[in-house]
Known about the structure:
Number of strands: 34
CATH class of the largest domain: Mainly Beta
Bound molecules: beta-D-fructofuranose
Low-confidence stretches: 259-267
CATH topology of the largest domain: Tachylectin-2, Chain A
Amino acid sequence: MTLDDKLAKKIEKATYQEPYRPHLHFTPEKKWMNDPNGMVFYEGEYHLFYQFHPDSMQWGPMHWGHAVSRDLLEWEHLPVALEPDELGMIFSGSAIVDWHDTSGLFNGGHGLVAIYTSASESTQQQSIAYSTDRGRTWVKYNGNPVIPNTELKDFRDPKVFWHHETNRWVMVLAAGQEIMIYSSPNLLNWTYESSFGKCEGAHGGVWECPDLFAIEVEGTKELKWVMQVDIGDGAIAGGSGGQYFVGEFDGRTFVTEPKVTGTLDGGNAVRWVDYGKDFYATQSFSDMPVKDGRRIWMAWMSNWQYANDVPTSPWRSAMSLPREVSLVQEEHVYELIQKPVAELFNRSENIFVDRTISIEEENTSIIPQPDGPFVLDLMMKGVNGGEPEQGQMVVTLFQSDRKKGCSVTVDFEQGEVAFDRAGMKNSEFHEHFPAVTTAPFSAKAGALHLQLVVDRGSVEIFIDGGRRTMTNLILPEQADSYAITISASGKKPEVDCLGFTIKSVW
Length: 506
Ligand code: FRU
């Protein structure tokens, strides 16, 4: 038992008021969590399963933890759904609704099927389990594994969806440095179709947790396919992170467009999902109701560099906010846009700042920071609407007497937003945690919109309407109160500043 586990054991029940306990983001009550798994909407409920070690504060024999929600923000914890068995631990995977009983597991009715990796010391294979009672209890299929494997070392994280055009199930699976695509008429028998990615994208680490879905290009009827792939190391902010590809999928092969080759190890062609250090293993919800039509995804808000050591107790790790994903086309380039789901804004409470701040060089504007979670919307522009093409603007959060907070710096000359948690004292617990992460933006429009969603232990930044996002954990020193400060250098910009609190989920 580690020291962490001993401490966590002393704390019998979570109070949900612990330092750094998120008030908007999903956390397990206690113990270790990593990737989101099995995200599916069924009979009015969103299901979130997650990689869970119920006996420890550190990664270990993986189970699937389980929670349900009706609004994506208030989650009800349910008992562990899947426990390790003779085939091994229960690694990451997905869940779908078998509406027409293609599997024959539902007596002509419908129900939930989870597709996961059975991982032992020696092998990783794909297995399934099913539930006939809205996910409350699970039965493992007696023909597991449905995709056996004795050859490949890394062969995991199945994401399954129904492909209408070919009338069958499709699975994307991470296999070393590529994605394998399988198909099946019934979820039980799978056929290998093709592989993707050996010569595309970033390859700084093992590929993990793929997702593949069709999405309409905004404002058109054009359909594109987005492949999301995580890499265990070598992502844009260091350590683990996600990349995506846009292309075509015919039910068998995925091809990017335009075809990009030879971009091993992070050439310019890599499209990063997020520019912060803490956004990994992204997965989107399956079976969203047609009348809703949104593509919503969520990620694990941590980084394998230090995940096992983040000093929170009695739980470790949170999920990102659920984000609505869309695709736009600008000058022949397809770009993903991510925004917090609308459900977040339904919880808006008090406006604590609503004004235009003209920043003089020697002045710092100080805004008292609310206690709980909040959103800060900043529209930055030049004085009298001109372009703020020179100079820098710095916004600090969690600033208190003599205690250094974190900061967001917008550099208009470089076209770059930087997030700095390096100066925060509590960042020192691990060499890779004190970091400055950066994301590029194009300030063509002469103004830049930043939306900051601030919770007790994280800052998610949505840059330029969500064209770029930057997600980072933070560990503020405890203080009676904090301030937000805004200052600038160079050309004096103006900032339209709107801040409002969001009702805690606890
Ligand atoms: C990603 C990952 C997956 C694996 C799981 C194990 O974070 O490494 O590839 O299934 O975590 O917990």
